[in-house]
Design a protein that fits this description.
By secondary structure, the protein is an alpha/beta fold. It is built from nine helices and nine strands.
C-alpha cells in the first residue's frame, strides 16, 4: 500500500452511486476507507424499485449501508446524482466530517469534489479506470476500484494483472515519477538514496491516482524493485531506494 497520512480517526462520509459502482468491490472498498478514517456515514443512492440494483440489496444489511431511494423521474436525467450532491452539501455544512469518500465513475461529481476541497476537507474518489480525468483530478486521492477485485470473483470487475519488467520500464510516466520522487527526497546532500516512505508520499501528492496495485503489486517497494532501474536497500527496518543511473553512493 502507498503511504497514507495518519487520519485513521478522521470521521468520513461515504457516498456511493449505486448506478456507477459494482457490489463486488464493497468489502475491499470499506477496508480501504478504514485505512483513511472512520466511516461515520455510509449511504448508497439509487432507484431501489428497479431490478438493476438487485445485486446491491444483499450487501447493504451486511455492511450497514443506508439505501437512499431516488426515483428516476425522467428518462435520460440522473436524479441519483442530484440527490447525492444535495446530501453531500448538507453533510458538509454540519461540520462533523474531515473528509468525503465519493464512489462513482461519473464525471458529474467533479464540481462536488472541488467544492468540498474548497472547504478544507479531503476528498477520496473511488471509481473504475473509465472514470473521466476531470473527476479523478478533482479529488485529493483517487483509487481505482479494480484493485478491490478478487481472483475468484468472476462476476466482479476484471482483476488487474501484474505487469512485466519490460512493460513497467516502457511506462515512461511511471519511471519519471519515481525518479522525481527520489531526487526530491534524497536523505542528505550528496546522497542518491531516498527513504521509501517520503518517496511514496511525494508520488501520491504528484499523481493523486498513483497506486502500486494499479500495476499488480501490493507494495511500492515490490513495484520499484520489479522495474529493474532502481536499487533497494534495507537499513534498520527502513527501506531506501536509489536510481541506478546515479553512480555516486551516499
Amino acid at each position: 500500500m502507498p503511504p497514507e497520512e495518519n487520519h485513521q480517526t478522521a470521521p468520513l462520509a461515504v457516498l456511493i452511486d449505486a448506478d456507477n459502482a459494482n457490489p463486488a468491490i464493497i468489502e475491499g472498498l470499506l477496508a480501504e476507507v478504514a485505512r483513511l478514517g472512520i466511516a461515520s456515514v455510509k449511504r448508497i443512492y439509487g432507484n431501489w424499485t428497479s431490478n438493476q440494483l438487485a445485486s446491491w440489496k444483499e450487501v447493504l444489511l451486511e455492511y450497514s449501508i443506508q439505501p437512499i431511494q431516488q426515483f428516476s423521474y425522467t428518462t435520460g436525467k440522473n436524479a441519483t446524482d442530484s440527490a447525492m450532491i444535495i446530501d453531500a452539501m448538507d453533510l458538509l455544512y454540519t461540520g462533523h466530517f474531515s473528509g468525503f469518500c465519493i464512489v462513482s465513475s461519473d464525471s458529474d461529481f467533479t464540481r462536488l469534489a472541488s467544492r468540498i476541497r474548497e472547504s478544507g476537507l479531503r476528498v477520496y474518489g473511488f471509481g473504475e479506470h473509465k472514470t473521466p480525468k476531470a473527476f479523478v483530478s478533482a479529488c485529493d486521492r483517487f483509487i481505482y476500484t479494480e484493485v478491490f477485485s478478487k481472483k475468484d470473483d468472476t462476476k466482479g470487475p476484471a482483476v488487474i494483472k501484474r505487469l512485466t519488467a519490460k512493460e513497467l520500464r516502457n511506462d515512461t510516466k511511471l519511471v519519471q515519477l519515481i525518479r522525481e520522487a527520489i531526487t526530491a527526497n534524497n536523505e542528505s546532500e550528496g546522497s542518491d538514496w531516498a527513504q521509501l516512505g517520503p518517496v511514496g508520499s511525494f508520488m501520491n501528492k504528484t499523481a493523486n491516482d498513483f497506486d502500486p496495485r494499479n500495476y499488480g503489486f501490493s507494495k511500492l517497494s515490490d513495484l520499484i524493485a520489479a522495474i529493474g532501474l532502481f536499487e533497494i536497500e534495507r537499513r534498520d527496518n527502513r527501506v531506501f531506494v536509489k536510481d541506478k543511473r546515479r553512480k555516486n553512493g551516499g
